[in-house]
């Protein structure tokens, strides 16, 4: 079953349940930005399980270890091995045009997943499967605004600025604060913590040690938000601080259950993983797929978090 939604003035496809794939074998080369990331691990595991359920589909998974050069080499190796399609979770989205050019020159279909490519347009046999980060930043900040009653001071913890998602989540959170009823909220500090729980904890500790006062922590992902919770707990300031993340990972939902995290945004790793494999198999079989395949974000709060506990 599939349904169409309107997105940014055009019709896009959302995969709700994947159709049966062709019986022909397909070898897919998959390079992940890193294996050492909570959300990307869920994504990777769902790609593996979905591929295993499809007859004749084989994944070759590689860890780029957050190294651009390593990822480019992995793509080149896939091309040399003549895989049927390549799937990329980009280390640095500024490199996606180069990856696209390599795959196009080799005539191999390419699917970017989760991290949106920066290519001006995607050529034939190239697709992106993921979620619109302008939406996640918007709905996250609107809920933080609601919980702060439209006024207060916030800090923003950004992901790796080499990724489009970090830039968009930050930009659209700030856009919410530029307009009523949320323009009584001010950003007192923003820095990157590179998607890391440890770096998120250390950054918040540094802010507090410097005497910075804030009413909310708005993090580009759950891992950094969980690090902020650790720092705030150790300083006895968590009860007075709204902590918001994005992804709705199991650790984040557990933190919401205890009341430590107030806001997160569900990013459907299962649908993204299945959608990426689905698109790669279809492109390898010569079928057409939409160039942009969107999986919607969903707001998660204490009122509805239980319904998300079994979804990732």
UniProtKB/TrEMBL annotation:
Assigned keywords, A-Z: Signal
Pfam families, alphabetized: Peripla_BP_4 (PF13407)
Domain Periplasmic binding protein: 29-288
Keyword Signal among record annotations: yes
Cell compartment(s), UniProt: Cell envelope
Chief location bin: other
Signal sequence extent: 1-25
Keyword Repressor assigned: no
PANTHER family for the chain: D-ALLOSE-BINDING PERIPLASMIC PROTEIN-RELATED (PTHR46847)
Family: Belongs to the bacterial solute-binding protein 2 family.
Protein name, entry field: Sugar ABC transporter substrate-binding protein
């Amino acid at each position: 079953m599939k349904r169409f939604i309107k997105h940014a003035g055009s019709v896009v496809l959302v995969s709700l349940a994947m159709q049966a794939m062709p019986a022909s074998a397909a070898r897919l080369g998959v390079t992940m930005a890193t294996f050492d990331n909570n959300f990307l691990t869920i994504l990777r595991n769902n790609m593996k399980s979905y591929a295993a359920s499809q007859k004749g589909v084989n994944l070759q998974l590689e860890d780029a270890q957050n190294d651009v050069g390593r990822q480019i080499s992995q793509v080149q190796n896939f091309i040399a091995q003549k895989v049927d399609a390549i799937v990329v979770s980009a280390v640095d989205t500024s490199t996606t045009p180069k990856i696209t050019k390599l795959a196009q020159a080799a005539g191999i279909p390419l699917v970017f997943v989760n991290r949106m490519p920066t290519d001006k347009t995607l050529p034939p046999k190239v697709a992106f499967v993921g979620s619109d980060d302008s939406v996640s930043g918007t709905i996250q900040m609107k809920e933080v605004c609601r919980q702060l009653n439209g006024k207060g001071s916030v800090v923003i913890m950004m992901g790796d600025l080499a990724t489009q998602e970090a830039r968009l989540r930050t930009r659209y959170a700030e856009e919410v604060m530029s307009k009523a009823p949320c323009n009584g909220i001010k950003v007192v500090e923003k820095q990157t913590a590179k998607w890391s729980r440890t770096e998120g904890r250390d950054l918040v500790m540094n802010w507090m040690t410097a005497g910075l006062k804030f009413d909310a922590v708005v993090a580009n992902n759950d891992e950094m938000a969980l690090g902020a919770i650790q720092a705030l707990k150790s300083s006895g300031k968590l009860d007075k601080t709204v902590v918001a993340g994005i992804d709705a990972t199991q650790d984040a939902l557990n933190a919401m259950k205890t009341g430590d995290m107030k806001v997160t945004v569900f990013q459907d790793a299962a649908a993204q993983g299945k959608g990426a494999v689905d698109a790669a198999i279809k492109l390898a079989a010569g079928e057409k797929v939409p160039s942009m395949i969107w999986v919607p974000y969903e707001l998660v709060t204490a009122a509805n978090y239980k319904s998300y506990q079994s979804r990732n």
